[in-house]
Structures are given as structure tokens and as C-alpha cells.
Write a structure and sequence with these properties.
The complex is a heterodimer of chains A (107) and B (82). With 107 residues, chain A is mostly helical. Chain A has helices spanning 2-26, 30-55, 60-88. Helices cover 75% and strands 0% of the residues of chain A. The radius of gyration of chain A is 18 Å and the shape is elongated. Classes of the chains: A mainly alpha (107), B mainly alpha (82).
Chain lengths: 107, 82
């Protein structure tokens, strides 16, 4: 029973990985590629860690530590990366609405 | 069944590697590197169950730490040229 739940979580995580890789290939711009990549890969890695915790319940302490680590560090790195990519490659930003909430923040 | 899981994770790693090779700017390559490090960490977690060795979990932890530090360092390099 626990094995079937583990396979269900594992294939959901693989589907999220595939969606994130496809969005990374198909999106037109750096920031939209980041929006496709980071969210889906965070949830996908957490689902795969949960599936391995269903397969091997005696490893669950290490897996919980690894999941907390991914859950803490991934938003930090993606926010730093998006800010610096916006500042450096501003003319590449795919903008059809004309809105720019960070217009005054140079330096 | 587990072979199919590992093969699909490796397929999405390949699709991310295409963006890493042909990304137009440096920021695209850093985004692809961040996604690749997370996918490879999950691949190591699945491989630790496949080979039934608990040592690979420590390897996955170190790999995630190295990916995070590399992404932050490249983002700071993009921002201020160090």
C-alpha cells in the first residue's frame, strides 16, 4: 500500500519536472523562464523526496532535513538571480503591458 | 517501474541541458544551472533507493549545497561584476 502511494508521488514529481523543463525551453524571456522553472522544480523535488520517504521509512529523518534545506534555499537563490537578471539584461525583458514596478531602482 | 522513474528524470535533465547550451544570455544559463542542480539532487535521492545505499543521501545534500552556493555566486557576478 505504501509502495503504491510512493509511486504515485514519484510520478507526480516527474511530471512537474517535465513541465518545468518544457517551460524552460518554450518561454520567451529570462524572467518567465525562471517563473516556469523554479516553482515546478521546488514542488517536484519535494514530491520525489516524499515518495522515497514512503519507500524507505527508516531514512525519513535525512529526507526531512534535505527537504527543509531545499525549501529554504531555493527562494533565496531565485530572488537574488531574478533581481540581478532584471538589472543587467533590462532590454531583453519581454514586456507587452508597459508596466515596470522596479523602474526607479537603479544602482 | 523504478527504471522508468529514473529515465524520466534523466529526460527532463536532458531538456534542461539544451537550454543550458543554447541560452542567449548568461542569465538564462544560470537559471538552467539552478534547475539542473535541483533535478540532479532528486536524481541522487532516487538512485540512493535504487542502489539501496544511505550514503548517496549525504551526497545529495552536499550537491544541493554546492548548487545553491554556485547560483548565488553567479547571480552576484551578474549584478556587480565582482
Amino acid at each position: 500500500m505504501l509502495t503504491i502511494i510512493g509511486y504515485i508521488f514519484g510520478f507526480l514529481g516527474v511530471v512537474l519536472f517535465f513541465i518545468s523543463a518544457l517551460g524552460l525551453l518554450r518561454m520567451p524571456d529570462t524572467l518567465t523562464r525562471m517563473q516556469a522553472a523554479t516553482k515546478a522544480s521546488t514542488l517536484g523535488s519535494l514530491l520525489i523526496i516524499l515518495s522515497i520517504a514512503c519507500f524507505m521509512p527508516q531514512w525519513s529523518l535525512k529526507l526531512i532535513v534535505l527537504g527543509m534545506f531545499i525549501l529554504i534555499t531555493n527562494p533565496i537563490s531565485s530572488s537574488i538571480l531574478s533581481m540581478s537578471a532584471y538589472k543587467r539584461f533590462k532590454k531583453n525583458v519581454y514586456n507587452t503591458s508597459g508596466a515596470d514596478a522596479l523602474k526607479g531602482e537603479e544602482s | 517501474m523504478l527504471n522508468v522513474l529514473i529515465l524520466l528524470i534523466a529526460l527532463s535533465l536532458m531538456l534542461t541541458l539544451i537550454r543550458f547550451i543554447k541560452g542567449p544570455t548568461l542569465a538564462d544559463r544560470v537559471v538552467a544551472f539552478d534547475s539542473m542542480s535541483i533535478i540532479a539532487t532528486s536524481l541522487l535521492v532516487v538512485l540512493s533507493f535504487y542502489f539501496n545505499k544511505s550514503l548517496y543521501l549525504d551526497l545529495a545534500f552536499v550537491f544541493g549545497l554546492m548548487g545553491f552556493i554556485g547560483t548565488v555566486v553567479f547571480a552576484k557576478f551578474l549584478d556587480k561584476e565582482l
